[in-house]
What does this fold into?
Amino acid sequence: MYKYDGVDKAIVSDRVEQFRGQVQRHLAGKLSAADLAPLRLRNGLYMQIHAHMLRVSIPYGLLNSEQMRALAQVSRQYDKGYGHFTTRQNIQFNWPALADVPDILKDLSNVEMHAIQTSGNCIRNISSDHYAGVATDEIIDPRPYCEIIRQWSTLHPEFYWLPRKFKIAVTGATNDRAAVQFHDIGLEVVHNDTQEIGFRVYVGGGLGRTPVIGKVIKEFLPRADILSYCEAILRVYNLHGRRDNKYKARIKILVNAMGIDGFRDEVEAEWAHFKDGELKLHDDDFNTMQSFFPKPDYEELDAGDERVQQWRGLDSRFKAWFDNNTEAHIETGYRIVNISLKEHGVAPGDATDAQMDAIADIAEQYSFGEIRVTHEQNLVLADVRYKDLLEVWKALDAQRLATANIGSVNDMICCPGLDFCSLANASSISVAKQINEEFNDFDELYDIGEVKLKMSGCMNACGHHHVGHIGILGVDKKGEEWYQLTVGGDASNQAALGTHLGKAIAKDEVGGAVRNILEVYQANRSDDERLLDTFRRVGIEPFKEKVYAEDA
Amino acid sequence: MTTKTQANRSIKARAKATPDRIQSDIKNIKAIVNQEIVDSDIHHVAETEDLSVADLPSGDISVPMNMWLDHKSELQARDGHVSVQIAADEFPDDLVSELSEINRIVLPMVTHVDGRSYSHAYKLRKQFEFKGEIRAIGDVKYDQLGFLTRTGCNAFELPESEDLEVALNAFTEMSDVYQPSTDDGRLIFSRRRTVH
It folds into this structure.
């Protein structure tokens, strides 16, 4: 993974001391709370219902064991012994004291981590494919490009006070696991006809109150031009994006207002002023960056392993975990292991300090000391030898990290909701629990198969409900928590927004409604269709009829 | 230099006194210019619907872009130096043909969280090659000075409540940068190219 050089170290270290100064001036009464707010936000520090919340950046979701241990230590020393992994592949701590935050950031800087631009109206953490480098469908490894964009966007002086937050995602695989069409800028690394590497550039996608699928602004952008083109997009957005209404301030609103062609013309005109200037990248730059992401030192192994196969036959729990939580690897004799952070009764995405330490150890012993965070709020050990799977399973299981539910309806994405967040209208975590309890029979879960259930506690859509195969949105109706359901959303290549099922459902009926939706699917599916496929074939009506049958 | 945008001088088409313009005149006795605290005596005139040349105070002033475009010769005939404001919702492109006659641009910021003036400063320096002073005024405090400097501002008038001596620290807080802007900062990758 990327290692800091002197420049990275100086910038992160200076930013920690700058923030320390800002906090000190605030505590001394020389910087008002109102003036501190946008500054602390740009360093990941929110004010939540109960306390401050610190969001630490995990660039494109990649961590090493040492960093994971540092996160565990922060949660132990400064927080309540747990952290929450987010849909932007970051981690949040829910209870730090303001005065401690500079020290937390100092500790994190020692392991090359920071909280720069994890919130605020600026360019956020670059997100990417959590299977980068190991996926069987990968065309080009996106990580070097993510790191190049990360550095360019970090403390960019011109784009620090944008109309609204700005999210960039990069994918390099056939199956888009980074949801690039739902980002302000989505980049798909591709080859053109002459095998030159470049990007298909999407702009103006996003979720939130107004979900929009990104539009292609450039079919093929040579990779040398990626920074200048992003800069042109950002400048047009910075100058023309709406600032009078925060709900209309994202770039998607501007792109829709100008039309993609009008927006493209404006960007191209701006780009023409400096496209061959100092932002142009050289092949050397890519080669240097690529060298930070070498193939690990893989052994030459046989495919499969007799003992592991035997155990699959003997132990149904191991079999379920193997079948659901591990995936094919590009290298013979290796598997990708997903670590489920969706144990029943635990807030989705949460991990304790002891679990984080254990994961660091397991990664060190079995997966080259690296861990990835997924935007579905799980973790990944990307390079596990097939023959070690039994040991890895046992080690994870001992930490309650082997719940065999990856990709199932219980593997839901969920925002913190009303329990923590000052924006939320309704709770998400308790509804997640309700759904977990509704589907506590794992055989039934496996029969249902892949369902991406995504839930947000308010319209801001941190839980990405619009693109859930089943989406759940919490709303406030006269002080009560109600939930609106959608079916058929999809964040992958065939990007689609979910279709509204009907009127909102009372809190205690959400689990039953999800069950109804899945029963309609089970009754209607043909062959190996997923819920999403069946929905695309039969439409919303059968689901609607069943869920609202009692009202009829 | 671009000839793309001819200034739109139709009075009717150009908005005045929008929420993005300073709402009342600003005058400070101190400024930070080229990272030093100096005396200041510029009266920054806020735009109103019926602002006229006759209403202008004497001495050094800055005027809204509309007034410059409509009354340039009268302004140039009066005593005292005249600078021109570019508000957040205006565009430096509209002033391109005027820049040779202007030696100070003022960027009035109603709120520091509005980042448009950063792009204005950048375009003035890089695209329009403006060599004069660019002065940020209004809601401009310690924590904005670093990035405003990088994007091309070299003069600042802070609210009276701000301690200017303390604010000077802003210029040395960050010892390095990743990307070019209008300053000496170079793209990190091109710097590493020469090292490797």
Observations:
- The mean pLDDT of chain A is 94.
